[in-house]
Amino acid sequence: MISWTVPVELPETTDTEAFGEELGRELGAGDLVVLSGPLGAGKTALVRGLARGLQVAGPITSPTFVIAREHRPLPGGPGVSLVHVDAYRLGGIEELDDLDLDTDLTEAVVAVEWGEGVAERLADRHVLVTLERRPDDVRVARAERMS
Ligand SMILES: Nc1ncnc2c1ncn2[C@@H]1O[C@H](COP(=O)(O)OP(=O)(O)OP(=O)(O)O)[C@@H](O)[C@H]1O
Ligand SMILES: [Mg+2]
To answer: How is domain 14-146 classified at the architecture level of CATH?
Structure first.
């Protein structure tokens, strides 16, 4: 179980992945995760953990050049796809509808990097994960349920 709203220190990349994995185990169809944090904060690392928690096929890489990637459920898992989006290059979240994804977003978990301020319009509630990069390079994560 993750600790909601409590800032969690993540010294290593593997800690960020583990945080994402725990969060992923608590998510289901239709959930939207908005990842907020500066360049290199660990947004993609956290999505790698989400994929593990949700038991979807990898690999998770930065979607910067493809805008969105769909990851299919692995046998034995909860059976929900993960759609990984980079909103940095998306003109607006409306364009997500135009991407012609095979996955119905209401039946997937959607994780959006750089999505703060735009992705919220996709759903009436979402999970906001804020990643901060401290001067000592430790990352601090906070997950909140927003509506
Ligand atoms: N505690 C940590 N958590 C996450 N990443 C870390 C941590 N410590 C070091 N790193 C490193 O920081 C780098 C950036 O991670 P990542 O690509 O996940 O960030 P990002 O927020 O997705 O970046 P971008 O803004 O470019 O999309 C990686 O090389 C990763 O290994
Ligand atoms: Mg990234």
So the answer is: 3-Layer(aba) Sandwich (3.40)
